[in-house]
Amino acid sequence: MSSPQKTVKVTIDNRVIEAPEGATLLQVMLDAEMDIPHYCYHPKLSIDGSCRLCQVKIEGMPKLQISCNTQVRDGMVVNTLDPEVQSTRRGVLELLLLNHPLDCPICDKAGECWLQNFAMRFGSGQARTVEPRRKHGKRLDIGEQILLDQERCILCRRCVRFCREISKTGELAVYGIGDHSVLDIYDRRVDNDYSMCVADVCPVGALETKDFHHKMRVWFLEETASVCPSCSNGCNIMVSSARRQIWRLIPRRNDDVNDTWMCDVGRLNYKFIDDPARLLAPQVAGDAGLVETGWQSALERAASSIADFIKRNGAKAFGAIVSPHLTNEENYRFGELLSAIGAGRVAMAVRRGRHDDFLIKAEKAANARGVRELGLVKGADDGLGEMLRACEAGEIKALYICGDDMLDAVAPERLAAILAKIDLLIVQDLKLRPQFGRAAVVLPTTTFAEKDGTFTNHAGRVQRIQRALESPPGWVGDGEIFTSILNLVSSRRDRFELGEVWAAMTRDGSPFAGLKLDEIGPNGAALGTPGGR
Amino acid sequence: MSNANPLLAILSGLWVSTRHFLRNLSRFARGRQDFAIHFPEQRLVQPPALRGMPVLVQMDNGKERCVACGLCEWACPTTCITIYPAETTDEVERYPQIFDIDMARCMFCGLCEEACPEEAIVMSRQIEIASYSRRGSLWHKQDLLVPVNQLKTRTDYLRRNYDR
After folding, report:
1. What is the pTM of this model?
2. Which of A106, A216, A219 faces B94 most closely, judged by CB atoms?
3. How many domains does chain B have?
4. What does the mean pLDDT of chain A come to?
5. How many structural domains comprise chain A?
6. Nearest by CB to A105, which of B73, B86, B118?
7. Based on the number of CB atoms within 10 Å of its own CB, is A306 exposed (0-12), middle (13-18) or buried (19 or more)?
C-alpha cells in the first residue's frame, strides 16, 4: 500500500472487524470468511442488488439491508444470525426455487452450484407450491461456446454485467418484466473473446460451456492451480483433471494478472495434452527414417552426436532454438547445457497472433519473458533473424530445436531450405513433424500440465505451475533431458531438482535473485521487487 | 436397546441361534429329513429386500432410465461404477454413453440404488454372476439393462421403505 488507507471498525455478530473505508459490507464479511449467501454480487463486477439474498440486520436501520450495496461505517453493528435474517433468506430462496426446474441430475453445474449450496445451507428444504413450474427455453444455442437454459436462470444479471463491463459487447440482457423476465440475446450471439466467462460467473447452470457440456461431474475433478500456457499474459488457472485426463481449464483469481477472467482460446487450449498424435517415445534416425527407441539410448545418441559434431566442426557451428513454452528452470538448465557445449548462437522462436488490450497478448507462449530474463537470447527478434541468416550462410551446421514455434515464425520454404542444409538436427517437440524429418534425434517434450516449475509472464511476474497429470512410468521430462545430455557431454553429475536449479538460478546478479521458490504464492511474484511483492 | 449393554447384545445374539436350534430340533423330532435346498434344481424365492447384483432399469422404449448424473458413481464405496455421459436429442438430454460395473469389486451394499434420483439403478434378485475371468465380471450397459416390469417387486419395495 502506498498511502495508509483509512480504516473503520464494524461489529459483525459480536466480532469487531477492521475494514478499509468505503468497502462494501458484503466484501468485508466475505473477507472475514463469514458464510453469507449471495448471487448477484461479484467482486469484479458492478453492484446490482437484484438477488436480495445477502440481506443483514444493521442496528439503527428500520429494515434489513442488502449488504452488497451498503458501505461500512465506523461503529456499524451488524447481525447476520438474527431469526429475521434467516427467515428472509429462506423466503428469498423459496422464491428463487419457485420456478427452478430442479434438473440437477442432468445439470453440469450440479456440485458447484450456488443455488444447491445455499438452498441446502439456508433454504427450507421443502417446496410448498403445487402449481406447475414456468416453462422457458432450454438448451438454447446462443453462442459459439455457450448454451443457455432459461428455466435454471435466477436473473442475478451477473452475465449481463459481464458482457457490458468486461467484454464490453453487451450481448445478453434480461427481457420482460415481473415473472415474465427472461435472460436472452437480442440481435447478436455471445461470440466475444471472453464469452465462456459468463458460464463461470453464472451461479447456477443457466449458462454452460459447450466444451464441458455433459462431459464430467465436477465432484470427480481434481483442481490443480497452474498458469495458462497459451499466451504471455499468464492468466492464473485451475486445471481440472480426472481419470488421467484434463476436462477443462477455469480461471483462478489473481488481481495482478487476470482478475477472475480468461479468454476462450486459452480455455480451450488443453486438448493438445491428450492428442493421440503426441510423441510417446524418443525417435532416432535409422537407415529407413526415424525409429522408436528407449530414452537412455536416445539421450546417449543425442550427446554423442553433439560431441562428434563439435569435434568435426567446432562449437561455433552449433546453434540452438530455445522454447518459450518450457519453464524458467528447464530453460536455465538448457542454458547451462549450451554454455557447456559452447554453442555459437542461441535464438528463440515465438509464435505470434492476435492480441487485444485486455488479456490476450500477441506472444502465444507462456515463458518468452523468462527466456529473455535468463539472458539466453538477445535482440529485438530474440536473435532469430541472425540465426536464420547464419544457417543460410553455412555458419551454423547443427541445430537443437526445442518446441515447434519455428514452424509458424519462419516462412515454410525458408525453413525447409535451412533445415536441408543442417548436418545435425536434434528436436524436442510434442509431435513428429514432417518438417523435422531429417532429425537425428527427436525427443518428446512435456506439457505444462505434467510438470512443476515457474513461468515468467510478459510483465515479469514469476508464477508457479503444478503437475496435474502423471507422466507414464519412465518418462523423462524436459529438464531431465537437458540434465542428462549435460552430464553426458561434460563431467557433471547433476540432477534436475527444482530447488537445486532454483538456487543456482537465483544467485546474485540474476534477475531472479531475491526470489525464493516456496515464497512464490498463489498470485506469483514480480521480478525486480524485493520479496517479489 | 441391545447396543447399550454389551452383555445384552451377546445374549440376544445367542437367543437367535438357540431359537433356530430349538425350532429345527422340534421339526427333526416330528420327522423332517431334509434341511437343505437342492440348488440349482431347487431355488429359494428371494424376499424383495435381497440385494443382488445392481442392474439398470430399461424403459418401455428400450432405453435406459439413467441420465448419467454420476451420483451412484460417487456413492459407490468400492468405485466399481464407471460412467461416461453424453448428450442426446431426446427430451432428457443426457444419457450414459458408457456404464460399466465391475461385479468383481461390487459388494452389493445398495448405496448406488439409494443415491439414484431417477430410480434407474436397482438391486436385482440376480445373484448367479460368477464368471471364469476378471473380464467376465465387467458388465457393460447393454448387459445390465433389465426391463422395468421385471423389477416391479424391488421398485415397490424401494418406494415403500425408502420414503420416496
Report:
1. 0.89
2. A106
3. 2
4. 93
5. 2
6. B118
7. buried
